[in-house]
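Progress against Task 2.4 (sequence-to-structure conversion) is shown through the following example record, which the project officer requested during the mid-term review.
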Amino acid sequence: MTSPNNKPRCQWWRPLTLGAAAAVILLAMVLVTRRTEPTPPESSAGTPNFPIVPAPTLPSKIRTVFILSKATIKTPAAAALAFREGTAAANSFLNDLAKALEPYRNDDYPEAARRLLLQSQKYPSAPEVYYYLGVSRLFLDQNSDALQSLERARRVAGETLRDDVAWYLSLALDRSGRTDDAGHELNALCARAGDYQQKACAALKELR
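C-alpha cells generated for the chain above:
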C-alpha cells in the first residue's frame, strides 16, 4: 500500500514531462526566429560596406548683368512721324500701341503678347510693336518666337531703338543656345557709345 503522502510515480512524473516539452517548444521557436532574421549582405573581397556619399555639385556661374529685365516703355515719336498717312493715322497707331502696352505695364505678359501680336499684323512696319512683343515673349520663355520678333524689329528699327533691340536680341540668342551670336551683338554694343555700352561690356565677361 501507498501512503497518502507518497504519490504514484506516474502522477509526479507527468508535470515534469509537460515542463520539458514546453521548454523544447520554446527553444525551437527561438531558433526559428533567429533563422528568419535578415542578415546584412556581405561585401565582396571581405571589404566593409561604407555609405556612398554623392560628389558635391559645383555651383553654376551666377550672372548679375546679363539677365532679363523689363524694358522701359519709350514714346515712339519717331515711329509716329514715319507714318505718311497723316496725323489721324499716327494718332491711331499711338492709341493702339498704348492699349496693347497696358498689360505690359502691369507685368501681364501673356495678354501683352496677345495684343501686340494683333498690332503687328495691323502695323507691320512699326518696330516698337515687334520690340515689346519680343520682350514679352522672353518673359514667357518663348525664346524662339522672341528671337523672330526681335529680328523683325531690327529690320524695321531706326536709331531710336537700335541699341535696345540689340540688347534683348543678344538675350534671345543666348537663351536659344546661340551664345557666339549673342557675343557678337554684345561686342557691337560694347564698342559703341550709348546707354548699353557699359552694360554690354560687363555682360561679355559673364558670357565667357
